[in-house]
Write a structure and sequence with these properties.
With 23 residues, this protein is mainly α. Helices cover 65% and strands 0% of the residues. Keywords: Magnesium, Mitochondrion.
Length: 23
């Protein structure tokens, strides 16, 4: 997944999911 290609809004959601994965 290229975060650079994704919009900021999408990146924020991705980070949210990423934190959930880490949890």
């Amino acid at each position: 997944v290229n975060h650079s290609f994704m919009p900021i809004g999408v990146v924020v959601v991705t980070q949210e999911d990423f934190l959930k994965w880490w949890d």
